[in-house]
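User: Is it possible to get a 3D structure for a protein together with its bound compound? The compound here is uridine-diphosphate-N-acetylglucosamine. I've pasted both below.
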Amino acid sequence: MSSTKYLLVAGARPNFMKIAPIYRAFSARRNAHAAASLPLLVHTGQHYGRNMSDDFFRDLGIPEPDINLEVGSGSHAGQTARIMMAFEPACLEHCPDWVIVVGDVNSTLACALTARKLGIRVAHVEAGLRSRDMSMPEEINRLCTDAISDLLFTTDTMAGENLRNEGVAADKIHFAGNTMIDTLLQQIGRARQLALPDGLVPGQYAVLTLHRPSNVDDPGSLALILGAVNSIAGRIPVVFPVHPRTAPKLARIELHPNIRVVEPMSYLPFLGLVARSTMVLTDSGGIQEETTVLQVPCLTMRPNTERPITVEMGTNVLVGTDPGRIVREAVSILDGGIRPGAVPEKWDGHAAERIVDVLMSPAYRLSPPNIVGLREE
Ligand code: UD1
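Assistant: Yes, that's possible. Here is the predicted structure of the complex:
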């Protein structure tokens, strides 16, 4: 029997931390059995350059991608379409049995859709998360990717429940745990060794990240949030690594001198920064999970979250975007009102191994598929 072929896809910054342990788990199987397959790595190029991509591959020990689609930035339709058009020939050339996609970015949906229409099986890692907010592009990506995936790997029990409520067959859903946390647990020792940026003292600064279109694209919304952060900066230094989407919007907003604006950081320095901070203010998805595991208080400046387990069990508080509430919750933390949190089940560093165990089980080790749909007349 020829060995099963996998394409493992990453495109945007948060994907790189999710694929690294999956690639490593495949490599471990390969070291144990020479006949086991290694996946081919596909980088769509949704995020590119040193800050947003290359340093992550270096920090996380991910090899150079076998296939780089180099699609770059664009509108949602343009970017999604370009990824699909570039990914289709890669699928036809390599004829994978499985395409593995992670997370909820445009690359996730584009590659899942392309593969599925060619009759190639799709495994979605981090399936079933739902914000119930259809104004978030990521929610559309999650719903559509889950609807067409053959295997759905979930990070928590609530995600599995969401999928079952949507009618997904139970045998497609596997509660694997969180591969982003696999990476965190593997790298946290190294991250804590790194020096903090000049002048910062562990436990005496906050970290801010902002990149959601709903928070940063409208100058009024961004000004309100940053007004709240200006007040907080009166009490504690705030380090603000600025995402490229946000950077051009900052020009006309006055920031408190205690807010330190820096370039986007690569994985290890950022993890080291968060791990030693007093609190994090963010609108990111993944950082809600990372702070939960690090037991660092997190204020999420969004009206909803697709990761409610971090609020129910972890250190995350959903504060919305009302400046008064943001400041009140931050002051409460600074005054010692810290809510202890617990770590969700299976966020234990072994999620990727469980995923690869399922993929390599006899039920899913398929012979090469018949590629279909090459030309639609
Ligand atoms: C994307 C993901 C979001 C994820 C975020 C992490 C989607 C729909 N969104 O949002 O879920 O949380 O990545 O960063 O997939 N840009 C650069 N350099 C880059 C990448 C982007 O300068 O390497 C600029 C471009 O001007 C681009 C803008 O940032 O237009 C937005 O990038 P894009 O990939 O469209 O979405 P993100 O906001 O980064």
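Residues 332 and 354 are 40 Å apart (CA to CA). The two ends are 35 Å apart (CA to CA).
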